[in-house]
Amino acid sequence: MAASSRAQVLDLYRAMLRESKHFSAYNYRTYAIRRIRDAFRENKNVKDPVQIQALMNKAKRDLGIIRRQVHIGQMYSTDKLIIENQEKPRT
């Protein structure tokens, strides 16, 4: 994979994770983050430039979907779950 292609993939990966962290619903947020990490790990050994480009295009479409879902989720927000309200222990 060329250096510029690698940088683009990493930028897309970071953008997807960053955007997924904005989901207001805990379950959606954790699922999206887990699914993004799994998908990128699954395809980390792909060498074919055509296949890499196809995966990049799919990830860009998915990023758009994530952004739309985050906005929709913010319009219809719900109360936080108990697991989200737990304070972290002080050290």
From TrEMBL:
Q: Give all residue intervals belonging to the Complex 1 LYR protein domain.
A: 7-64
Tell me which Gene Ontology terms the entry assigns under biological process: iron-sulfur cluster assembly
Recorded GO CC terms: L-cysteine desulfurase complex; mitochondrion
By sequence similarity, the record places it as follows: Belongs to the complex I LYR family.
Q: What is this protein called?
A: LYR motif-containing protein 4 isoform X1
